[in-house]
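Same chain as my last thread, 263 residues:
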Amino acid sequence: MTTHRIRGLAALLLASSLAVGAVQAASGDRQADPLDSPRWGDMRKEFFPAKARVVFDSRVKVSAPLTAENALNVPVSVDAGALPDATEVLVFADFNPITRIVRFRPEGAHPGLGFRIKLQQSTPVRAAVKTRDGVWHVGGTWVNTTGGGCTLPSAGSASPEWQKRLGEVSSRVWERKEGGERIRLRIIHPEDTGLAAGVPAFYIQELKLTDEQGAPLLHIEGFEPLAENPVFSVDIPAARTAAGYRVSGRDNNGNAISAVIEK
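reply #2:
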């Protein structure tokens, strides 16, 4: 084979390699799902643009019980602190009838969140973290449960008391050994999914956490599978701790939520 032909073949191979790389970048990384869920392909199409780069990343930590005894109240925590420049986090469950659970933007808070959810059946629970370069990093864990959590009415929907206390916020703030502070919020709300017969969807859609001066710390967008009377835990870095905090928001019926969080 002549030198000219060798160079031509090398150039062709390089061009082919670049073309394959361009296709992979355009369609996102097609890695095998580490949780081996038959629904992953559907989740990718539902939540991410066709040309988005989506990668499985062990730095995205999703913690939940391997077996959840109460499908109406499953504790989950997400931590994306090991990723640089996390701008948005979306949490979803592959096999829930309503897959979206919560979306949040860390605007000064640590890029993590603790909360509780409802599950209809055993499912992967995943967190997709978008970084400033536009890449989505996905982590997750399987949760096994007897299920039914999304199609049962809340206890609050059958009680006249919840109307008196709707949107009531209780809170606690304490120092962390690692530095900074942890804020825990509990909001009285039935959080009905709309999948129980005769009970319409009624849930918290938006929450904003700021310091006492109004500087943003965390923006939460909620969806139907959050647990009744939701509890949120968020960490505030030492550089962003304040003398006090405020929380505000609304539910899907327009009811306002507002509270001052004092230490």
